[in-house]
Design brief:
Radius of gyration: 18 Å
Order of helices and strands: EHHEEHEHEHEHEHEH
Strand content: 15-25%
CATH architecture of the largest domain: 3-Layer(aba) Sandwich
Number of helices: 8
Number of domains: 2
CATH topology of the largest domain: Rossmann fold
Largest sheet: 5 strands, parallel
Number of strands: 8
CATH superfamily of the largest domain: Response regulator
Structural class: alpha/beta
Shape: elongated
Helix content: 40-55%
Length: about 200
């Protein structure tokens, strides 16, 4: 359906924005509250979201994600890290680079960017925080697990949240491994070495 470009139709409903972004209503509401999407509430309490804000977010995700890369079959472990803290991003890059594991690393700071990247080429391993602006880790992981293309991606969560706090947010899929912050790099290294060994056996 062609979009009505009349100035009075520049705002869309939460449901329309959710369909365009491929997200749940709750995720879109959260993105409006955090300022990731521009919108306002009617007198009746309904959200109206700027269409150009949705368009800009989609464009940023498509342009900001890492380019599609061809993986060296049987050699590199493809890892995507989703973490909005720039210091932790640097720590992940430098620590992984020092390990005797061949890693193809992509670091992103937004859950929506990660969904776009993971939809293009699912990694072997996703390492994610849970508390992030806009689309949080809970929603990102739920959406990922709904995508059969990424069904074999291993998921590790590294979060400051306690087990009770995670359960209060609806919990995580049973196959997700959870570590508490600060980042336990020694345990992560062992986990990733086990993944590499598993892939070698499969191949």
């Amino acid at each position: 359906m062609a979009r009505n470009t009349d100035s009075n139709r520049e705002f869309i409903s939460t449901a329309q924005a959710a369909r365009q972004l491929g997200l749940s209503l709750g995720a879109v509401q959260q993105m409006v509250e955090s300022g990731a999407l521009a919108g306002w509430k009617t007198a009746g309490g309904h959200r109206r979201i700027r269409q150009d804000s949705v368009d800009a977010l989609l464009a940023r995700s498509q342009q900001g994600s890492a380019p599609v890369r061809q993986r060296n079959e049987g050699s590199k472990l493809r890892v995507v890290v989703v973490e909005d803290d720039s210091l932790l991003q640097t720590l992940y890059r430098e620590t992984f680079a020092s390990w005797p594991i061949e890693i193809e690393l992509c670091v992103l700071d937004h859950g929506l960017d990660a969904l776009v990247e993971l939809g293009r080429q699912p990694p072997d391993l996703l390492i994610a925080d849970l508390r992030m602006p806009g689309l949080d880790g809970f929603e990102m992981i739920r959406r990922l697990r709904e995508n059969p293309v990424a069904s074999e991606t291993a998921i590790v969560v590294v979060s400051a949240l306690t087990a009770d706090e995670i359960e209060a947010e609806g919990g995580l899929p049973e196959d997700v491994t959870v570590y508490r912050k600060p980042v336990p790099f020694h345990q992560l290294q062992g986990y990733m070495q086990a993944l590499v060994a598993q892939h070698k056996r499969i191949r």
